[in-house]
Amino acid sequence: MTLSPNLSALRASLKRPTSWLLIALGFSSGLPFLLVGSTLNLWLRGAGVSLSVIGFVSWASLLYGLKILWAPWMDKAHIPFLHALLGQRRSYMLLSQIGVAIGLCAMALIGPAHLPAFVAAAVFVTFCAASQEIAVDAWRVEETKTETDQAFNPSAYSLGVKIGLWSASSIILIAGNHFGWPLTYEIMAGALIIGVIATLAAHRTEAEQRYDAAPKSFRQLIVEPFESFFAEHAGTAGLILLTLAFYRLGDYLIGPVCTPMYQDTGLDLDAIGALRGTVGLAAGFIGIGIGGACLYFLGLQRAFWLGALVGPASNLFFSWMSLVHGSVALFGAALVVDDIGDGVAETALVAFMTKMTGRDHTLTHYALMYSVAALTGKFFKGFSGLLIDSVKPSIGLFPAYAAFFAFTAALAIPTLILCWRLRRNGVFTAG
């Protein structure tokens, strides 16, 4: 697919309320991700929890990869009262946003001193956050109608996600360091009001109104959405899913050990939060802008290739950083490279999955691809801390960190090979 650089169409997209709603909904989707991820890891590490346990706790995020298990119900099954009031997509958005807020407050009240209950609350937050993503993704895909939307909507959504991630990875660290984690998590729960307002301000999509009838059988609810995906991508569906499984694998793997590595090298929470909130945030916006520009001017195929390369390759800076203790300058450089790479890769990934999604079973198709993209990394990242702890006695903690991050960067190689196979099979030009 080639996106013609029609600036007048781009200006028209900027004037649409959908573009701004996507930023707010992206914020609401991105906010809880790190609160049950790397930020939670810092809270646990500060409470004296080992890397091995932190790695296993990160398996809570497996629910993001398993959301295909309940996505078909969210695609077609109606919520009493809320469906009549808000429609299919927004009713699930609202319910899941309320659930995230309740779960974050529960985490704040329980605390890591009661680890089983604390982890259970984190799992509940993850389930609700994954459900919110399912509904928001479906709404966003159904609002992507033109080639300009194909380039701009992923960028607008990714921008909102980046702001949410920034709030949960920089502001929260400074606040948590000075006011305590419980109060800070309660504040983050209150910030979900932004997503609630966006949900209420949004409208029912045209596709939603066309396919708004409740399913009449198990086959209509469960079997037909999967059949339609494999029929639509006959001969290439397996290759598409395999590519997605590798695309962000390197970034998933470093999740449980990246922020503990910052602390182990001597960086304090104020420095981490300040740099994430300034240098990291700016770099993230630049990366999203570059990703959107690549989609708009170079086309999906080239943007997707670029993301496959720069996403994992940026992990080499973390490998370097693990051997240079407490260098704020190097940490800032690593953030710049990593956040720009993440912005490009994530924007291209969202655009690719949007293009591969059929409009008759939007939510299930997208959830299937996202689950495959996330499940492999979210499962194996649970062993990241254990792997480093097992190598540490032989070579030392920081060389173990360095070797691990270098390995994750090398995952760019099989990903690029799979992208080449996609090109050979005409996947990027189909549809």
What is the topology?
Blueprint: H1 7-15, H2 17-35, H3 38-46, H4 51-57, H5 62-65, H6 71-76, H7 82-86, H8 88-110, H9 115-142, H10 147-179, H11 181-190, H12 193-201, H13 206-210, H14 218-232, H15 237-247, H16 249-264, H17 269-298, H18 300-313, H19 316-321, H20 328-355, H21 362-380, H22 384-395, H23 397-410, H24 412-424
Helix pairs in contact: 2-9, 2-10, 2-12, 3-16, 4-22, 8-9, 8-11, 8-12, 9-21, 10-11, 10-17, 10-20, 15-21, 15-24, 16-21, 16-23, 17-18, 17-20, 18-20, 18-24, 22-23
Structure description:
The chain is mainly alpha-helical and 431 residues long. The chain has a single domain (7-424), classed as Up-down Bundle (Growth Hormone, Chain: A), CATH 1.20.1250. It is 80% helix and 0% strand. It has helices at 7-15, 17-35, 38-46, 51-57, 62-65, 71-76, 82-86, 88-110, 115-142, 147-179, 181-190, 193-201, 206-210, 218-232, 237-247, 249-264, 269-298, 300-313, 316-321, 328-355, 362-380, 384-395, 397-410, 412-424. The chain is globular. The N and C termini lie close together (9 Å).
